[in-house]
Give the backbone structure.
Amino acid sequence: GLVPAAEPESSQEEEGKQTGREQLHRLEERSSKLQMKLDRAEEEKSQVQQEIIRYRKDNEELRKRLAESEKTYGRQLEEALAEMRAAWFRRYQEIDTTPLREAEELLESLLRRTERAFDLQRHADEEYGLVADVRQKLLHVELYLKEIERIYADSMVVHSEVTKVKEALLQTKEKLLKLPGIQRVLSQEPVLLSPVDMRRQIRLLDVVPENLPRITEIQKLLTRFVDLGFIDDPQLLIEDVEHKKRQIMESLYAQHQTFQEQTSQGRHFQNLDDFVESGESRKYDLYLDGYNILLKLQVKNRSSSPLSLTALREPFIAAVVRKSLHFRKVYLVFDGQEDSRDRQGNTEIIYTDKSRGNTADAYIIQALEKRKDKQVLLATGDQEIIQTIGDQLYAVVDPYHFYMFVYDLPFPGLP
């Protein structure tokens, strides 16, 4: 038989090669175009760098010319004055020269005062800076603070070094804003606090439990401002407040988990919110180890100075008083300088004389040892107290759980 012709297969191979060549040609064209773009970009970059170098040289040349002009002007001024003095002397040499000498002395004194004034101004410029320099510094500080604001708002963990530079930047900004004549720099700045400024201040708050009362107050004030019509669109502000509150909650949750790992969980009350909601809590007295709760909330290794215990104590007392009606009675005990008591609603605030050995711990232990019933809740993280009178309690509430309870933060369920 006859063998079929092989031309079709050869034709297909030729078409395949042609297609490959076309694809290769297109790739080469794209590569060539990209290379041209890169070449143009490199050329533009080179031109920009050359312009920068040229501008720097021009600037340096202008500085030199200015210095030379100042010297030339000073020399010409001295020569002109010398010529004027000579002319005055030649014209009036036959008359009384006393007024002329006095005028010359006055002029010399005025010139010396002028030079001294210029020297003082140069020193002032070196110490305080020029308007353009201060504006540039403020601009840089604001740009960095904005970036730190973004970090505080978005980052899960804020590095301690960021917190340190934030404090340093805020101090620098405060110093700049105290400079004499700063109003010339800020002449275009708004006087009133804008929503943008309020958002920035909220975002820059440290994620620490001590700021929780501030967030609570900000929420109240924000609601009030909206009601009064001072803020047209509060949504972004509300979101920032909620975000900061959520960050503090997450910080509290993390501290609570660490505390639970270090203590005996069996003694701790794990459903305080449900207990209060059921109404059963009204049958129990609540004892609070005040400073123990507040000190547990102090974040370790903070770069910024911690708030004073007084600054923490007063809003905490107010929050406890608001929640006191959920219990039969509340005893809030603090170490003090002398024995004293104060009653606010259903809460008895007790200060013990620590200098005489009457500590808050001792007061709580003695008070609970005298009780014959176990209708008592105790909020503390002091293991010595818990071990001493734990059997006389209905339950212990850990500091983090109670702190979130008084500030209406939902506490996560425990496994």
Summary: The chain is about 65% helix and 10% strand. The CA atoms of residues 30 and 36 lie 10 Å apart. The beta strands are 285-289, 329-336, 340-344, 347-353, 376-379, 395-397. The longest strand covers residues 329-336.
